[in-house]
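Reopening this one. Same input as before:
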Amino acid sequence: MTRILLVDDHAVVRQGLKQILAESLPDSAFGDAANGEEALEKTGASSWDIVVLDISLPGKSGLDTLKELRAAHPKLPVLVLSMHPEEQFAVRALRAGAAGYLTKRTAAKDLVAAVKKLLAGGRYISSSLADRLAAVIGSHREGAPHELLSDREYQVFRMLATGKSVKEISQELSLSPQTVSTHRIHILEKMGMETNAELIQYAMQNQILE
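Same output, byte for byte:
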């Protein structure tokens, strides 16, 4: 029996994933987790063959959860399934240890193919993502300003770019306002900017939030 842990904060999404995978993998047993903490608890309490992980989670972020999962269970394959386009998070997810990356717009057959490939010990990325990875690896020039940010800084940057305040971000990420303010300072320094307005303009021009 194949044991699959589905991690997403929306119950309807978990149910949909379960239905899609159960049809093609009838001998599977499924587990659910609504956030990163719950995912780490469940992977620590019992064994799983694969984790399908949403990158946008309340509290502990999907990337942080991924890193902790990989540290605790290095042989456990993790497929990241995200609402965000590949260019926004895929490279970061793969660097953090994901064995595959799919967007939620992906067809059901691609989801099944990805899960089967990971269960067989392989990795799964789209052809467009493969091209992007090749470009990143083959390029010796400095990346775009936002690519200089750490994963947490990138998360805070995206939230600042939507107009959220330091207080709102601190509450949503369970960080102190001082920590968020420090991240903001580092973000502005690394990106060569001075104001939140510049961050918002940059995010719009580079389609960071789409």
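So the earlier flakiness isn't reproducible anymore. For the record, The chain has a mean pLDDT of 87.
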